[in-house]
Design a protein that fits this description.
Layout (H helix, E strand, L loop, with lengths): L2 H31 L13 H4 L14 E4 L8 H6 L1 E4 L2 E4 L3 E4 L6 E3 L4 E9 L3 E7 L4 E11 L6 E2 L4 E5 L12 E7 L2 E3 L1 H4 L8
Antiparallel strand pairs: 1-4, 2-3, 4-11, 5-10, 6-7, 6-9, 7-8, 8-10, 8-11, 11-12
Length: 201
């Protein structure tokens, strides 16, 4: 065997060795990275990020009118006079808003999602149910003839809570709904809360 043939053979073996070594390294690298998850540059927003805060909705659907407004100290004397409740010979400021449908019963809907924190039958105010939202706003619905949700139940905005009825406190209104909105211990005007988020109250 001459020197030229020997060099060619040696060069061929060296090339094969380098090629096989590179192949083994490549396979090893792929094996180590095969299970690494691909990170998306545009991650899907979480439920919290995409969730839009609810706006307080009216507790009814259809033809319903305001029977008596909330007593607001900023209103003029005439409107304030219409917001007084005569009970046991004494005029008292209305601490909620009253809604009626020509003295006919109508379904009461949850204005906000939340938890039922109170359900009772009051001898003066009739059947009452209170729902507290996650942000600490409590809405109480009074003067109901029936309540279809249970204590501690979770309700969603728009769920049917029951039907309107009559009560002793505002007997002059006949069949109606009395609605009270509270935040941080303050009683708010329900009509001014509609279409606002709890943060805007």
């Amino acid at each position: 065997m001459n020197k030229k043939t020997y060099k060619i053979g040696l060069l061929f073996c060296l090339s094969v060795f380098v090629f096989l070594t590179g192949l083994v390294v490549y396979e090893k690298f792929n094996e180590n990275n095969r299970d690494i998850p691909v990170v998306s540059m545009n991650p899907t927003p979480t439920e919290t990020e995409t969730k839009t805060e609810e706006k307080i909705a009216k507790p009814y659907a259809g033809e319903v009118q305001v029977a008596r407004s909330f007593y607001d100290q900023s209103d003029d004397a005439e409107k304030q006079g219409k917001s007084l409740v005569l009970f046991e010979g004494v005029y008292r400021p209305n601490q909620g808003a009253d809604f009626t449908s020509n003295n006919k019963a109508f379904e009461v809907l949850a204005s906000l999602s939340g938890t039922v924190t109170s359900k009772k039958e009051d001898p003066i105010f009739g059947l009452c149910v209170s729902i507290e939202s996650d942000n600490g706003v409590t809405i109480t619905y009074q003067s109901m003839s029936e309540v279809t949700v249970e204590l501690n139940a979770k309700v969603k905005q728009g769920d049917v809570l029951g039907k309107t009825g009559e009560n002793l406190y505002e007997a002059d209104l006949g069949n109606h709904l009395h609605m009270i909105v509270e935040k941080n211990g303050n009683v708010l005007n329900p009509e001014k809360c509609f279409d606002k988020t709890t943060k805007e109250l």
